[in-house]
Amino acid sequence: MKSLFDAKELSNEFDINLIGIDEAGRGALAGPMMMAACKLHKELKGLCDSKKLSEKRREELYEIIIKNSSYLILAFSNEQIDTLGLSTCLKTGLKLIKKHFRTQNFLYDGNSDFGVSGIKTQIKADATIQQVSAASILAKVSKDRAMNFLAQNFPCYEFEKNKAYGTKAHKELIAKFGICKLHRKSFKLS
Predict the structure, then answer these.
(1) How much is the pTM?
(2) pLDDT digits (tens, 9 = 90+) for 165-185
(3) Is 7 exposed, middle or buried (0-12, 13-18, 19+ CB in 10 A)?
């Protein structure tokens, strides 16, 4: 069941009890998907959708966020994604986040709660709600760091550049070298 959240409820006032949730790497062709949940202890300046920030700025904000929040970062491997499917991984992540924080005030970026009760959703919440922006940054930096590390063992795929997303260059490298054990075999290249 989908539950769309009314942005007006939160956008004008900081809610210290809100847990923001987002993920990174959902559409990547290889490597893990990261999910992050964040409860900020105070308002922070400069937060927005992680995709709108430079890598350097995301790294700076990551350090500020972890010092000023309670957070949880989850990783789902490419094998888990292939075996369970993205939806099951996301549903599992939301359940783990609810269990970890034990509160009733969760907001997930997107339009589906994946059948997990008590999760509110809002499209583009990562652009307007600080806690979701913070979760977006935590997830994106964690995903990028993982791909930078994994790139050392798989240099021909240039994961440090493409972060495992389906860029033209990455698809050309797959065509040249085939897939490696980090690639999601359940994903079809278009």
Answers:
(1) 0.91
(2) 999 999 999 999 999 999 999
(3) middle
